[in-house]
Design goal:
A hairpin with a 6-residue loop joins strand 15 and strand 16. The chain folds into four domains: 180 residues, Jelly Rolls; 112 residues, Immunoglobulin-like (Sandwich), CATH 2.60.40; 275 residues, Immunoglobulin-like; 94 residues, Sandwich (Immunoglobulin-like). The radius of gyration is 29 Å and the shape is globular. By secondary structure, it is an alpha+beta fold. Helix 1 packs across helix 6, helix 6 runs parallel beside helix 7 and helix 11 runs parallel beside helix 12.
């Protein structure tokens, strides 16, 4: 069916599986997504002639095979007139290219995505790129991954690989094209086949969002042209062994595979350095021989480190990194180079006595607090956007991001290393990846070639991720664990890669033959449950390790809603709970907001308009997300069935969504965001919905002494009904907690709806934590017997309708801004100046430009704060000055019972 490939030595999926020869050195995928000019030709890439250079192709021209009648030989030859083709970035799905070229309207608005015909993407598409080479004396390799779903590869008119070899989004391929490369212009062309996540080991979306019509077909990682002399260095990595718990020493072992690509024997001089330690080895290689070269403390004493710089997650310590450089020389000339960045840390995750996976990092206990990561729906890589979201994770006090499939490019893990965000990568659920083991999924059964692709995928990802200290584990299953054959393929690949951290068989409560039990649970919920749900040590409550869970819907701010939906859609949003919501999910289970809207009306009262609906949603999301993280935090050090980890499902969405997000597509922050930020404060006072205890949780490494906790109950009008202060508290660090007091079961005269204010001060009398709850004497009632995989029904709602009676109170605001080195900081002082007793509940400050639009991203010191009469709070907002786009900043202040106003902040 396809032309026979040119006779040439090549390295494909098979060699990756057998020898792990296909590992890219760090820096191989350094090109960021570049904006492309509509209707322009693909930029020709100038390839470096330096030995060891890896040059990513700068972009492609793409076109449907339905519109190209020319032969593959013609399309892949220099000088081919790609007239009418669409420009694409270096990493681009077909639809991403068409969107950049203005073919379709904004897919994130309304139902525009639904209007894109899927039929256009049910045929292969051509990806074509030109590159220039000056020196043909060096060996040249085409190095790539990220093909979705498969591709025939052609260079200068000749086929060099077929789709039977180049399959799977994660398999890595290195093709020796030395014999084909000419001085001057060269052409590479990929004939990319359509993607079907149920048939291909690639990427799918399940119920996360409305799926892209092209199903992400394309090339989503860099295609790199690599140059070398006769000897190439591959599979370079560093293994580390840290002395735990002393952290006093660390042993490093450097490994690389020296490969002779010539037809004659050679002697290579391999030299390396880490910091001030240098090492070298002379290696003799027969023609086409590959040999592993190892440097260890036994032969290189400098690789035994004393007082090593240890890498920690954010909040537990610093994030120092080490650099390895290697050079292979032949006859005194550089033949190839390799570079790796790595960190020194120790990760262990045994099962505790209750069977839950308990992580420890560098000998210290770790409560995993994280969120599920989503890439852009069209897999468009934007380094700044990814870094902004990782900074948000740190701002929220999270320590982990889970990637269920959709494994981001190298730069993502580089950023995670630098910002101290742990990552939990793994394969995705329910489609082809689990077709062999998940009877409720939609994926097809595997054949022999699928097993080979899966093992190759594992080998490539293990080699790519192993040196990143941010990688906490790899989950080789999601909803289902692999069977014995699949597990063996994965584990063989991981062992061959010297995989350094725990391997988990599934994100659910499942087991695999070799690895045993996962120590995780996937018991939901995924839709609305009340805040008190999280405190029960059952189902999704705060016990064990819950790999994906939340109370479902997360209604964005009004600013975001107006950017993503039409006025008619917004009208339906608050009026009709049974309406299908396109921006929620394609799943019939999550297609509407019925469960959420019923609870919102039952607890807070029916919405009276869009603004009222959104403001009630923010209270509901704040209290629920806060309770989720607070419950897991409180239970982390329990002797009986402790909480060991929780992943909020999800951290973000890949498009404009109404559910599963702590931050929205535009990086705006709603009640869910600030509820999480409040719950994960370093030193935090909190209320327990189950037993009414007031607890102090200390997430700092060191203990805290001389603390004072105060708890006060108020009616909505501000009348004080209960007040108690406890002094002299001591709470150990690393997530320990102490109980300050327990609120009485009843308080005389307390309103059905009431407020609880908690204030924690340190030994110097400085306020270090403030937390305000809105509660009811009428609790939410759960029907545990009716629990499904996605939620537990609520049969009776807490009565919070009394909040609607709160008097409107004025809050003044003054703001100033300072800018330095591209960063601006706006300082906002809020003051409750009302003359009565009513507090200002959940007062929000939004940074806006001169047109009143949010300035994003922004990191607030605190927000959505509650103030009692006469109280003042000062907040800071930090952001890029350029995101003002030349406008003067302002601060828009609003709240539950505070009139909206905007003040200048210049």
């Amino acid at each position: 069916m396809f032309p026979r490939p040119v006779p040439t030595r090549r390295y494909t999926t098979t060699t990756v599986v057998l020898g792990l020869l296909a590992t890219l050195a760090t820096g191989a995928w350094t090109g960021e997504r570049r904006p492309v000019a509509p209707h322009g030709p693909a930029e020709t890439t100038r390839v470096s002639d330096s030995a060891g250079a890896g040059t990513p192709l700068s972009g492609f021209a793409v076109q449907s095979t339905a519109r190209v009648s020319d032969s593959a030989a013609a399309v892949s030859s220099p000088g081919y007139p790609a007239t009418g083709w669409h420009p694409a970035g270096a990493r681009s799905t077909v639809l991403a290219a068409l969107l950049a070229d203005g073919v379709y309207a904004d897919p994130f608005h309304s139902t525009n995505l639904q209007r894109i015909a899927r039929a256009d993407f049910e045929v292969p598409w051509w990806y074509r790129s030109d590159f220039t080479v000056a020196d043909t004396a060096r060996r040249t390799f085409l190095d790539f991954s990220g093909v979705v779903s498969a591709a025939d590869v052609h260079v200068n008119g000749r086929q060099v690989a077929s789709a039977a070899d180049v399959r799977g989004a994660y398999t890595h391929h290195e093709l020796d094209i030395t014999s084909l490369v000419r001085s001057g212009t060269n052409t590479v062309a990929f004939r990319v086949r359509p993607n079907d996540p149920n048939k291909d080991l690639t990427m799918g979306w399940l119920d996360w969002l409305q799926p892209p019509p092209d199903r992400n077909m394309g090339i989503v990682r860099d295609v790199v042209v690599r140059r070398s002399g006769p000897v190439a260095l591959r599979d370079t990595h560093v293994t580390t062994e840290l002395a735990v718990p002393s952290l006093a020493t660390a042993d490093l072992t450097v490994k690389t595979r020296a490969r002779n690509d010539s037809d004659a024997p050679v002697t290579a001089d391999v030299r390396g350095s880490i910091g001030g330690t240098e090492f070298r080895r002379t290696v003799s290689l027969a023609a086409h021989e590959t040999r592993t070269v190892t440097f260890s403390p036994a032969d290189t004493p400098g690789l035994h480190l004393t007082e090593p710089r240890v890498w920690w997650p954010a909040g537990m310590g610093g994030q120092p990194l080490y650099d390895l450089g290697l050079t292979a020389s032949v006859a005194g000339e550089t033949s190839d180079t390799a570079h790796e960045t790595f960190g020194i840390r120790d990760v262990r995750a045994p099962l505790n006595s209750a069977g839950a996976r308990q992580y420890r990092i560098n000998g210290r206990p770790l409560l995993v607090k994280g969120g599920g990561w989503s890439p852009d729906e069209f897999l468009r890589w934007d380094r700044a956007y990814a870094e902004d979201r990782l900074k948000y994770a740190v701002d929220l006090g999270l320590n982990t991001i889970r990637l269920e499939g959709h494994l981001e490019p190298d730069e993502f893990f580089d950023l995670a290393d630098r910002h101290g965000v742990l990552t939990l990568p793994g394969w995705e659920c329910c489609d082809k990846w689990e077709g062999e083991v998940n009877p409720s999924g939609s994926g097809e059964k595997w054949n022999d070639s699928d097993h080979a692709v899966a093992k190759a995928s594992m080998a490539a990802e293990a080699a790519r991720l192993r040196d990143h200290p941010s990688v906490l584990s790899f989950l080789i299953g999601s909803d289902s664990a692999p069977d014995a054959t699949i597990e063996k393929g994965y584990l063989d690949a991981l062992r061959a890669a010297d995989w350094p951290v725990p391997v988990v068989p599934a994100a659910s409560d499942a087991s695999a033959p070799q690895l045993g039990a996962s120590g995780m649970k996937m018991t939901g919920p995924y839709d609305w449950v009340p805040p008190g749900y999280w405190y029960a040590k059952r189902e999704g409550g705060a016990t064990g390790f819950n790999s994906e869970t939340s109370a479902g819907p997360s209604i964005p701010t009004l600013d975001t809603l107006r950017r993503m939906m039409t006025p008619a859609e917004l009208d339906t949003l608050w009026k009709n709970p049974d309406a299908k919501q396109y921006h929620r999910s394609p799943s019939s289970t999550f297609g509407t907001l019925r469960i959420y809207d019923k609870a919102l009306a039952g607890r807070y009262g029916p919405p009276t308009g869009l603004t009222d609906y959104v403001r009630k949603a923010q209270l509901a999301q704040y209290e629920n997300v806060r309770a989720q993280f607070e419950a897991y935090g409180r239970n982390a050090t329990d002797a009986d069935r402790p909480a060991t980890g929780v992943i909020h499902w999800m951290f973000n969405s890949g498009w404009t969504s109404l559910h599963w997000q702590l931050t929205d597509r535009f990086l705006d922050q709603n009640g869910a965001y600030f509820g999480a930020k409040k719950a994960n404060e370093p030193l935090h006072v909190q209320y327990s919905y189950d037993d009414r205890s007031v607890v102090v949780v200390n997430n700092r490494p060191e203990g805290a002494r001389g603390l004072t906790a105060r708890a006060t109950l108020f009616d909505p009008d501000g009348t004080r009904k209960f007040d108690r202060t406890v002094t002299g508290m001591t709470v150990a660090g690393d997530g320990a907690h102490g109980t300050a007091l327990t609120l009485p079961s009843s308080v005389s005269g307390l309103s059905r709806t009431h407020l609880l204010r908690l204030v924690l001060t340190d030994a110097d009398g400085k306020e270090v934590s403030r937390n305000v709850y809105w509660l009811s004497t009428e609790p939410d009632t759960l029907d545990w017997s009716g629990t499904t995989w996605y939620y537990t029904p609520t049969t009776g709602y807490a009565d919070l309708k009394g909040l609607s009676s709160m008097a409107q109170v004025p809050v003044t605001a003054t703001a100033t801004t300072r800018a330095s080195d591209g960063t601006s900081t706006t300082t906002v002082t809020l003051r409750h100046v009302g003359g009565g007793t009513a507090p200002a509940l959940l007062t929000d400050a939004h940074l806006v430009d001169a047109q009143g639009q949010p300035v994003l991203p922004v990191r607030w010191s605190d927000n959505e704060v509650s103030l009692w009469p006469g109280e003042t709070v000062t907040l800071t907002a930090t952001y890029r000055t350029s995101d003002l786009h030349g406008s003067a900043p302002g601060v828009r202040v609003s709240g539950w019972n505070t009139p909206e106003r905007t003040v200048p902040a210049a």
